From TrEMBL:
Recorded superkingdom: Eukaryota
Cofactor(s) needed by this chain: heme
Family to which the UniProt record says this protein belongs: Belongs to the cytochrome P450 family.
Protein name as catalogued: Isotrichodermin C-15 hydroxylase
Transmembrane annotation, as ranges: 161-180
Residues binding heme: C373
Entry keywords, A to Z: Heme, Iron, Membrane, Metal-binding, Monooxygenase, Oxidoreductase, Transmembrane, Transmembrane helix
Annotated GO MF terms: heme binding; iron ion binding; monooxygenase activity; oxidoreductase activity, acting on paired donors, with incorporation or reduction of molecular oxygen
Length: 429
């Protein structure tokens, strides 16, 4: 769309889509410099709070409540807390590696998209709720918590679309299904958070929220919706990137060979692979950046509303009330900002002169500004640890039916991923 019509496209009577990296800072960034004192670009409620019966979460909360929630959650997502949580994270990856060894011995391909979803849910569930969810152990998304998190991205997109079109009555069948499921899920989450609230303090993701709730500073309903947001966002985005990364490496054998060599020559055993040591894997980190560019877990723009008085975006005055967004996928695949944008070249993030004109600052997969992704450090930690351990221990080969896995995928905020069938075998060298 942007390649045909230009960097700014009106996609609805009152909505503009941008494919210009400058717009990231101007729409989502902190209010500093020329923007100091400007009113915040608020989130579009049609997109962020589809079902109004729910209390606001950290995603949909207005400025003051969002600041309170963010301050409460920040200690749990800090580098210090992450180091304290490393044992929990590694324990779940240990279980994943054990199950992959067991399952791969049959010689049948494994759906790695599923396995990445299960391990990331186990990790985020333990860190947020303080109890094991057992998804890797059962090896199915049909379990109670699997049904909680793994809902169709299409259903949510359908509700959003009905609200934008002001034909909400057409959404009643879908809405009834959503409300029934929300009620069931709310009860599950209430029980889990009740147990967490009455347990000992631990350096996990929600301890700050728990402390605020105990002191009466945050409503229980807001704690529930924010915890649910942490569960879903912390699972889906990381699992999606790991799936995309695996596919892109398998379809680019030179890159797979190089990153495998880097991992296997950097460590003598799996036990040496940890949060600190994986930060030194330069090529693997470049592969992660390139996978985030080609297959961003959240591909569309995240809509904001221009505040009173209007605002200047990319040199153009935009009137108040206009909905704006910057399309991640559009920016990350635009030839004005990237050399060979559809091709997988991790070298572009390592200073290769062939990519000297690439605008690396255009890559903002975790967004920027006061509402950027609070789970960025955790996501990178999980991705580094899981990918490094799989590359260290297994040789991988894509199953014929999964060649072209990226082709034709639909994105409704999150991608609707098909099976990613991969043959795993214990490394032969």
């Amino acid at each position: 769309m942007h390649l045909k019509y230009g960097p700014v496209v009106r996609i609805a009577p009152d909505e503009l889509s941008f494919a210009d990296p400058t717009a990231f800072k101007e729409i989502y960034g902190h209010q500093v410099g020329k923007s100091a004192g400007r009113l915040e670009f608020t989130k579009d409620p049609h997109f962020y709070q589809v079902v109004k019966i729910q209390p606001p979460s950290i995603l949909s909360a207005e400025k003051d409540l969002h600041s309170l929630l963010r301050r409460s959650l920040a200690p749990g997502f800090s580098d210090r807390s992450l180091r304290q949580q490393e044992g929990i994270i590694s324990g779940h990856i240990d279980k994943l590696m054990q199950r992959l060894r067991e399952k791969s011995s049959s010689g049948q391909p494994l759906d790695m998209a599923d396995w990445f979803s299960w391990v990331t849910l186990d990790i985020i569930g333990d860190l947020a709720l303080g109890e094991p969810l057992g998804c890797v152990e059962t090896g199915t998304k049909e379990g109670t918590w699997g049904r909680y998190v793994f809902v169709s991205p299409f259903a949510n997109a359908l509700l959003v679309g009905f609200r934008y079109l002001n034909v909400g009555f057409l959404a009643i069948p879908v809405l009834v299904w959503v409300v029934v499921n929300i009620t069931k899920k709310a009860k599950m989450l209430q029980n889990a958070l009740g147990r967490r609230l009455n347990s000992e303090e631990r350096p996990d993701l929600v301890e700050g929220l728990m402390q605020k709730q105990r002191a009466g500073g945050i409503d229980a309903g807001v704690v529930e919706t924010t915890s649910a947001t942490v569960l879903v966002a912390g699972t889906e985005t990381t699992a999606t990137l790991l799936s995309g990364m695996t596919y892109l490496l398998l379809m680019n054998p030179d890159a797979l060979e190089r990153v495998t060599w880097e991992v296997r020559t950097s460590f003598k055993s799996e036990e040496e692979i940890d949060l600190i040591s994986t930060q030194r894997l330069e090529y693997m980190l470049a592969c992660l950046s390139e996978a985030l560019r080609i297959y961003p877990p959240v591909s569309p723009g995240l809509p904001r509303i221009v505040p009173k008085g209007g605002a200047q975006i990319c040199g153009e005055m935009v009137p108040e009330g206009t909905i704006l967004s910057v399309g991640h996928y559009a920016v990350y695949h635009h030839p004005d900002y990237w050399t060979a944008p559809s091709e997988f070249h991790p070298e572009r993030f390592l200073g290769d002169s062939k990519f000297a004109n690439d605008k690396l600052e255009a890559l903002q997969p975790f967004s920027i500004g006061p509402r950027d992704c609070i789970g960025r450090n955790l996501a990178y930690a999980e991705m580094r640890l899981i990918l490094a351990r799989i590359l260290f221990s297994f040789d991988m080969r894509i199953a014929p039916e999964s060649v072209g896995w990226l082709d034709g995928q639909k994105a409704y905020t999150f991608w609707e991923k098909p099976d990613l069938n991969v043959y795993l075998s214990l490394r032969c060298k």
